[in-house]
Write a structure and sequence with these properties.
Elements: E1 12-14, E2 18-21, E3 26-32, H1 37-47, E4 57-60, E5 63-69, E6 72-77, H2 82-92, E7 98-102, E8 107-113, H3 117-122, E9 139-144, E10 147-155, E11 158-164, H4 168-180
Antiparallel strand pairs: 1-2, 2-8, 3-6, 3-7, 4-5, 5-6, 8-11, 9-10, 10-11
Helix pairs in contact: 1-2
Length: about 190
Amino acid sequence: MGFEVSALDGATSNGFAKVSEMGLRGMITLRGDFADRKFKSTVKKIMGTAIPAQRQVLSNGDMRVAWMSPDELLLMVPHATADDTVDALSKSLKSTHHLAVNVSDARAVFQISGEKMRDVIGKVAPVDLSPAAFPVGQIRRTRAAQVPAAFYFVDDTTVELICFRSVAGYMFDLLTRSATKGSDVGFYR
């Protein structure tokens, strides 16, 4: 402990939206049968939320549960608690088919904030970002330029984007350029 550092040490840039690398965040891939009673009750007990519906993100304080596929959740917890959370999941689900893996150190998280944050994402991701098509509380797995990414709207002025740590520098530059070069899209308001 004590040697962990985030991918870009909290780098930020300002344009018509602010781009920030969010530092360390605990992330756990949890796979299993969402219909299984034990699986559902374990997620509720440990994370404090139900299993989210398709493309939904549910929050409980500083913890989030995101639907990633029909048998995969992404659990977001404080970085320091990720290993303990995996242990608690594994212990509770020991007789239930599942996979719980701490993927925290393989990921980077960016926050894009400001009234024009949808414009930043709209320049790099092939997704309908209109508020009606993509409301707060939804998550989408897609590409940002050529990089696999997932992003969700925390509120009306904040989006968080998750990518592999190995491409964090590229992603930061991409988002920064999108937020500073040219103009905003002007379509999402």
